Amino acid sequence: MCYNWACPVSISPSLRPAAADFGPALRVGIVGCGKIADAHAEVLTFLPGATLVAVCDREVLLAEQLAKRFAVPRYYTDAAEMLAAEKLDVVHITTPPAAHLPLTKQCVEAGANVFLEKPLTLTAPESVELIRAVEAAGKRLAMNYWPNFEPQMMEFKQRLAAGEFGEPVHIEASIGYDLGGAYGQALMSDPNHWVHRMPGKLFQNIMDHMFNRIVPFFPDGDPEVQAFGFKYRTEIRNDSTDALLDQLRVVLRSGRLSAYATLASQAQPVGNTLKLYGTRATVEVDFNLRTVVTTGSQRYPSSLGRLFPPFQQAMQYLRQGRKNVRAFRQHRFHFFAGMTELLTQYYAAIRSGGPLPISYAEMLSTARIMDEVNAQVYPQNNTPNATDGGAA
Question: Which residues form a coiled coil (predicted)?
Answer without folding.
Answer: none
